[in-house]
Amino acid sequence: MKKQLLFLACLFMLSTMSAQVSIGPRHIGTSKNFPKGRLDKFKGTETIFVLSDIIDSATYEKILSDSWNVTPYKLMNRKDFKILDYNNGKYSFANLEGHHVEKRMKSGAIVDYLYIYIKFFMLDTESLTKDLSKLKKSSKKYKKRLRKAISSNKENLARVDLFPKDNFLPTALSSKSSVIMDTIYSKDVFYNYKSGFLKNYFQKVNNQLKDGEEYWMYENDFLPELKKLAKKTLYIPNYHLIKFNPWKMKSTKDKDGFDKVFESYEHKFEFQDENEIDRRILAGEEFYYLRFVRVNSQKFVHIINSKTGEIVYRNYVAGMLSSYNLKSRHIKDINSKIKKALKK
């Protein structure tokens, strides 16, 4: 129980440190514009995607061919990828990153930090080369210092935070970073790591970078397109039915409870299996679906155009420990924004 409570405290502390989709040179703190020349440099690279093994390469190729045209791209397996082989300024990267950090507080308590996301970045090759020249391979701390050199010379482009399945959290919090990395590359441990979802995430990142526009996720807004939901069905992936209890560190499927949450929705909605939503997105169908992601104690409620990947509605909620799941007030906010869209 002590470990669980410390974990919950950690989630609250991290509530200002992550975002579902962030496009820009920084992903925490405050929004910032890309440094001059960074996007031009990026558009002259080839992007290497190093992604999870849970989706086959043929499906990844389809996802990327349908969503990514801002740069040429190449798909690589993690075991074949060595980033220092590409330290020449000709490449950008998209890979999974995850690590678990324990920090001892002044009180003596141990607080856990868990970071997992898909990161888009480049390398500052000149600075990295200088840092590498100072390292001694004979040193016992060589590997640690090498990781630090690479990390400190990454030039951020975008980031997609992943929503860990609740049964993965205890494993992640009791494991070393290397174990977390092996797991996220080989196991199905995220609610929002599905082929269709990835296509829409990549479309959004691609289009923003192509247009040279940052996208700051700690905002609440909607597009005029949202008015279409007054007549169209809103599809809800079945994982939304899973209710998480932060005190017991357990989750249960609660359709009756979610029906009550959604009974205030004033338009048509339908639950649908994630695999069917995947199939429809990859087939190029156009519909609207709800994408709820919890990042620690924060909630991101999005409505997505499945064909374009555009986020037509977004509601960022800085949550407290007692509010980890969707609530009726979030659904009422969607109603309110649809009404406003209809008036425009």
Structure description:
The structure is a single chain. The protein is an alpha/beta fold and 344 residues long. 33% of the residues lie in helices and 26% in strands. The protein has 11 helices and 14 strands. The chain is globular. The N terminus is likely disordered.
In summary, what is this structure?
By secondary structure, this protein is of the alpha/beta class. 33% of the residues lie in helices and 26% in strands. The protein has a six-stranded mixed sheet.
SSE order and pairing:
Blueprint: H1 2-13, E1 21-23, H2 38-43, E2 46-50, H3 57-67, E3 73-76, E4 91-104, E5 110-123, H4 125-133, H5 142-152, E6 154-161, H6 169-173, H7 177-186, H8 195-211, E7 221-222, E8 234-237, E9 242-245, E10 250-253, H9 255-262, E11 269-272, H10 274-282, E12 288-295, E13 298-305, E14 311-318, H11 328-343
Parallel strand pairs: 2-3, 2-4, 8-11, 8-12
Antiparallel strand pairs: 1-6, 4-5, 5-6, 7-14, 9-10, 12-13, 13-14
Largest sheet report: 6 strands, mixed
| Nearest-integer average pLDDT | 86
Q: Over the alpha carbons, how many angstroms does the gyration radius reach? A: 21 Å
Distance between the termini: 51 Å
Strand content: 25-35%
Poorly predicted residue ranges: 1-19
- Compute the number of strand runs: 14
The level of helicity is: 25-40%
Number of helical segments with 4 or more residues: 11
Provide the succession of SSEs.
HEHEHEEEHHEHHHEEEEHEHEEEH
List key phrases describing it.
344 residues, alpha/beta, 11 helices, 26% strand, globular, disordered N terminus
